[in-house]
Design brief:
Elements lengths: L13 H11 L4 E3 L6 H6 L6 H5 L4 H10 L12 H11 L7 H14 L10 H12 L4 H7 L2 E8 L6 H9 L4 E6 L2 H4 L6 H12 L6 H17 L19 H12 L6 H22 L4
Parallel strand pairs: 1-2, 2-3
Helix pairs in contact: 11-12, 12-14, 13-14
């Protein structure tokens, strides 16, 4: 019987094994989208335990845990790190057929040399072994172990990019670039939209009093991101809305929002359509990947 997670895991035929082992295996990683923290990379932090490095920010694992019925206390709440890890160990055996099952065991093997399958029975031993290995693995060492050449982080237009610039000034061998993710500029219907506009005002240093000044602020941030090495835009379009409208119509929607008035679905779609097209043109001018 073929062993699970062996050196040819998921390489189901001779061609696959040849392509991976002779061509792909030793290539560097160029990651255009990730949720790594540039601050943690710059500070080269060491993680306290496996939960901190593995579960703290992984919304894919969180989603599986919620679907399984794990209480939020043991996902993002105040439960101890050990309790959160034990909760994930409960879920893992039920993720067979989901990439989470594959990723979990490939990561345990690649970073910590652990080949046991994770379950409630093996959780304590795996947690102890991984935590011991983490004593010699920092944020940068984990990236270097993966042969990473480039990463593009996920950055809001209000982000300072101070750690990207600090890493560049230091000359760190792995290139850490920002990716421009203006979801909060588009999501005008959400409750935190106006607080975000205030944060953008502080970052650009001028009042955003109408749609023109919003567009100016976003254009300024695109220019700034470009200067720090950004070449990629990043959008989470959960629902793709489209309603053709003029700039004046989009501006009227923005003004209504500033005045605290409710917006219709058509107004939200009109605003998002115009702004997304505006951003797309700006990305094209910068020759960014969209």
């Amino acid at each position: 019987m073929k062993r699970f997670n062996d050196k040819n895991f998921m390489l189901e035929n001779k061609t696959a094994r040849r392509l991976y082992n002779e061509y792909a295996k030793d290539l560097p990683i160029i990651d255009y989208h990730c949720h790594l923290s540039p601050k943690e990379i710059y500070e080269d932090i060491r993680f306290r335990d496996l939960t901190e490095v593995w579960l703290k920010g992984d919304h894919y694992k969180w989603r599986a845990m919620r679907a399984y019925g794990i209480d939020e206390e043991r996902i993002t709440g105040s439960a101890s790190n050990l309790e959160k890890f034990q909760a994930w160990a409960e879920v893992v055996p039920y993720t067979i057929g989901n990439p989470l099952y594959h990723w979990t065991h490939m990561e345990l093997k690649a970073f910590f040399g652990i080949e046991e399958t994770l379950s409630p029975k093996t959780a304590a031993g795996i947690y102890e072994k991984a935590n011991l290995a983490l004593q010699t693995l920092s944020a940068r060492k984990l990236m270097e172990k993966c042969n990473v050449e480039v990463v593009c982080t996920t950055d809001d237009p209000t982000d300072s990019l101070e750690y990207h610039m600090a890493l560049q000034e230091e000359g760190y061998k792995i290139k850490v670039y920002p990716a421009f993710r203006p979801d909060k500029a588009l999501n005008i219907e959400l409750p935190w939209f106006l607080p975000w506009v205030e944060a953008l005002e502080k970052r650009v240093g001028f009042e955003i009093k109408d749609f023109d000044t919003l567009l100016r602020a976003l254009a300024d941030r695109i220019e700034f991101f470009d200067g720090v090495g950004c070449r990629v835009s990043d959008h989470a379009l959960d629902v793709v809305l489209y309603h053709e409208g003029t700039k004046e119509e989009a501006a009227a929607v923005f003004q209504k929002k500033l005045e605290g008035m409710p917006l219709s679905e058509v107004e939200v779609a009109t605003y998002k359509t115009y702004l997304l097209k505006f951003l797309g043109k700006k990305y094209y001018e910068k020759d960014w990947v969209q």
